[in-house]
From TrEMBL:
Signal peptide positions on this chain: none
Keyword Membrane carried by entry: yes
Swiss-Prot/TrEMBL keywords: Membrane, Transmembrane, Transmembrane helix
Pfam name, any one: BaxI_1
UniProt protein name: Bax inhibitor-1/YccA family protein
Membrane-crossing segments per the record: 55-74, 80-97, 104-124, 130-150, 162-185, 191-222, 234-251
InterPro entries, per the entry: BaxI_1-like
Species of origin: Motilibacter deserti
Segments for region (Disordered): 1-45
Superkingdom, natural source: Bacteria
């Protein structure tokens, strides 16, 4: 393999197909040895490792694509929300199970999620004007709060925390799936379990809390990835995880606000 060490990557002996040779190599002087010693060691960028900046920039790129898709669905074709939901679900499962770091695949997921978010937001906002801005503010506030709690070490992704959160997440998604089936048969006036009085509010609050806590796992993935020296391409997977969790959080908040304003 071609070396990424800046000391070696310009040397024929360490390049692809190069041959090491010691002919015509001048004897290093004390001054040149001291200069080599003083040179800074290769950082994450030079060695192709993942950095916090990589994760931030990839996440911003994903949300940029998501916002474009959301704007298109909001202003042009809200009906594409269903298409976006199905395509996003399929792509999300593929990325998750394959742990794919393919930028095209992850940006396609972002576009699909944009269509889904923009479409349902338009529908909800027509029914309850102003609800989308409330959900966006709530999502940003929750994200900021969880990041602050994580950075101050109030919340940490300990093995016990991860185990409890994973079990709770699986249980919640099981209930959500059963609710979806019930909604198809008219349970809760088409809202499934979420439309059954106080039960629906409790389920939504649980969903918001779970999505917020899952952000801690995403923050930990980024931090551990940087610490462990993961290749730079894994910043795309980190961006995917953050985006998926934020969209989940937003949808849960949107549904909770809709239920609370249901009698308006």
């Amino acid at each position: 393999m071609e070396s990424r060490n800046p000391v070696f990557n310009r040397s024929e002996g360490f390049s692809r197909g190069g041959n090491a040779t010691f002919r015509d190599v001048p004897t290093p002087t004390p001054g040149s040895l001291e200069e080599m010693y003083r040179r800074p060691s290769a950082g994450p960028v030079q060695t192709g490792r993942m950095t916090i900046d990589d994760a931030v920039m990839k996440t911003l790129a994903c949300f940029g694509v998501l916002l474009v898709g959301a704007a298109f669905a909001w202003f042009v074709a809200p009906g594409l929300a269903f298409v976006g939901m199905i395509v996003g679900l399929v792509l999300g499962l593929v990325i998750s199970f394959k742990q794919s770091t393919n930028p095209a695949l992850i940006l396609s997921y972002a576009a699909a999620e944009g269509l889904f978010v923009g479409g349902i937001s338009a529908v909800f906002n027509d029914q309850w004007p102003g609800i989308v801005s409330q959900a966006v503010i709530g999502t940003l506030a929750a994200f900021g709060a969880m990041l602050a709690l994580y950075k101050t070490k109030v919340l940490r992704a300990t093995p016990k925390f991860m185990k409890v959160l994973t079990i709770a997440g699986l249980a919640y998604f099981g209930v959500a799936l059963a609710s979806l089936v019930g909604a198809l048969f008219g349970v809760g006036d088409g809202w499934g379990f979420y439309g059954i009085g106080g039960l629906g509010v409790l389920l939504c609050v649980a969903g918001v809390a779970l999505a917020a806590f899952f952000l801690v796992l995403d923050f930990d993935f980024v931090e551990q990835g940087v610490r462990n020296g993961l290749p730079e391409r894994y910043s795309w997977l980190a961006a995917f995880g953050l985006m998926a969790t934020v969209v989940w959080l937003y949808v849960e908040l949107l549904r909770l606000l809709a239920i609370l304003r249901g009698n308006d």
